[in-house]
Amino acid sequence: MTPERTRLTTALRELRTRTGLSLAALAERTAYSKSSWERYLNGKTMPPRQAVQDLCRLAGEPDGRLLALWEIAESEWSGRAARPAAAPAEAGPPRPSPPGDLARQDGRARSSAGRGRLAAVVVSVCALTVGGVASALLLLPHGQGGQEPPSSAPSAPGPRCRGAACEGKDPMHMVCGAGPDTLATHRTTTGARVEVRYNDQCRAGWARMWGTRVGDRLEMAAGGPTRRAEVADEVDAESYVYTDMTATRPGAVVRACFRPAAADGERECVDARVRPAATPRPPSPQ
User: Fold this and answer.
1) How confident is the model at residue 15 (pLDDT cuts 50, 70, 90)?
2) For residue range 181-206, what is the model confidence (pLDDT) as tens digits?
């Protein structure tokens, strides 16, 4: 496999591990068979774009970063990256696009979660202008590879813990990583990014970092136990690394501190206050 395919396959396998689902369970929850998932997760076959989105949904992971990895790997696999740039079209009636050309842009934005070693943090793919691919992260029509997307996507499972029951638990395994709030974002002097996250349904928060180096550490506390995470290897350094959760109530202050691997590096901290849940307004009188 190409390095691009290897990074994508590693990311998908880590994401599948976070879901805790077997291949048979993946087949039940998506439009792709057990044998298809086996090929996708072992790098035997390039997965369709929709399969990547479905796996992100089941893991409660924003799909922007994985789709960026998929776009790079697919362009190498399909040969689009090696195609010569097309000559400017002459004046006259428009010509139909060749069957292999890409046309529809999805427009989904990359957001952010997890210490699941998801592989490279790819925020933008601006260099893929060759072959008509210009600044595109999220391209390709749904259902690539002969697979049709499901008519209605199954709903993701709800959180598996709340409050004290979430203390010290993995936010992805507990499905608290689905739709959390980002309370604060901080860019460190080393270029790493730190975010403080909170899920109101779980009543718990955690911190995560990316753009890191091996040996970087992250600490997070909200008046209780300190939760920690460390970049252990190059795979971690190319992905999100996040702490376990700590029970956090609205109004509490959460502190996340980044400790660089360099011996002379200084600790950098960011504080964030958990916002109270929005109170629904009473209906206005008619």
Assistant:
1) confident
2) 899 999 999 999 999 999 999 999 99
Token pair in block for residue 28: 């039940």
Helix (H), strand (E) at residue 256: strand 253-259
Sheet architecture: strand order including 227-230: 227-230, 217-221, 253-259, 268-273
pLDDT average, residue stretch 101-111: 35
Q: ∠ at Cα 254 (251, 257), nearest 5°?
A: 165
Q: What is the pLDDT of residue 285?
A: 52
Cα torsion through 78, 81, 82, 85, rounded to 10: 120
For residue 119, which of 156, 68, 169 has the smallest C-alpha distance? Answer: 68
Give the whole-angstrom CA distance, residue 245 versus residue 205. Answer: 5
From the list 80, 88, 87, the residue with the least C-alpha distance to 130 is: 80
Provide the 3-class DSSP secondary structure of residue 132.
helix
* Tens digits of residue pLDDT in 141-186: 333 444 444 434 444 457 889 999 999 998 878 888 777 889 999 9
How open is the CA angle 12-17-21, to the nearest 5 degrees?
A: 105
| CA dihedral (247, 249, 255, 261) positive or negative | positive
Q: Could you say which DSSP state residue 246 is in? A: E
241-277 pLDDT per residue, tens: 889 999 998 899 999 999 999 988 899 999 999 988 6
DSSP assignment of 178-202 equals SS-EEEEEEE-TTS-EEEEEEETTT
Q: What share of the chain is helix, strand, coil (3-state, %, to 5)?
A: 25, 15, 55
Q: Give the count of beta carbons closer than 10 Å to the beta carbon of residue 278.
A: 7
CA 2 to mean position of chain CA atoms: 21
Token reading at 92: 């006259």
DSSP state of 227: E
